[in-house]
Design brief:
The chain is mainly beta. The chain contains three helices and eleven strands; from the N terminus they run H-H-E-E-E-H-E-E-E-E-E-E-E-E. The chain has one domain: Sandwich (Jelly Rolls). The strands form two sheets. Strands 1, 2, 4, 6, 9 and 11 form a six-stranded antiparallel beta sheet that branches. Strands 3-5-10-7-8 form a five-stranded antiparallel beta sheet, with no helix packed on it. The termini are far apart.
């Protein structure tokens, strides 16, 4: 089938070559998924946890936390149904597709890399679609990592259409989000606002 429009062949010349290496690019290393105890500690360390625990005392009992779903780039478990990723960035040798799967992470760039054609957008989106087995309290624990570590990244996390607000972070973070859910399917969404970051995992716990 011929191409459409006014496209036609043309000869272009590029008479300047480039070095074979990419200086300044740091190889990413695989990060382990956060544990229930780490999520539990992170919740207690987050401002506002005291008031939430007063409302929901079982949050303060690690034995009450039961993992029901887990999302990572390299796999899902439990009641995790779909992991949707939009506008992730793949920079060969750093965050190419195979490395993203091997390292269980996805990268969303921001500023920089214009030399390679980056539009410097912050349009990264993640959607974790899971089933809550019963009405009740749930904790959605997001594990994220900014890159490079000297830059602050900001994302917005939502459960369905309700926002938890802007989440700024530097380096690797474990951030729990507490919600009351009806039995059935729900979306936990992450929206890039500024800065580059990796999505590492989302783990959903039922508090019962």
């Amino acid at each position: 089938m011929p191409v459409g429009g006014d496209y036609s062949l043309k000869l272009l010349r590029s008479l300047r070559s480039f070095p074979g290496d990419r200086k300044g690019v740091v190889k990413a290393s695989k990060v382990k998924q956060s544990t229930k105890r780490a999520a539990f500690s992170a919740l207690r360390d987050t401002p506002g946890s005291g008031e939430l625990i007063k409302q929901l005392p079982k949050l303060a009992s690690l034995a009450a936390w039961t993992e029901i779903a887990s999302f990572r780039v390299c796999g899902k478990s439990g009641t995790a149904a779909f992991l949707d990723i939009w506008d992730a960035d793949h920079f060969d040798g750093f965050t190419d597709m195979q490395r993203c799967v091997t390292d269980c992470r996805a990268w969303f760039s921001a500023q920089g890399f214009t030399f390679w054609g980056s539009s410097e957008s912050t349009s990264g989106r993640i959607n974790c679609y899971f089933r809550a087995p019963a009405n009740g309290t749930y904790v959605c624990n997001a594990q994220l990592q900014s890159y490079p570590s000297t830059n602050l990244a900001v994302v917005e996390c939502l459960i369905d259409d309700s926002s938890f607000g802007a989440l700024p972070f530097n380096g690797t973070i474990i951030q729990p989000h507490v919600c009351e859910l009806a039995a059935g399917f729900h979306h936990f969404r992450i929206r890039q606002m500024s800065g580059a970051f990796f999505f590492l995992s989302l783990t959903v716990y039922r508090i019962a």
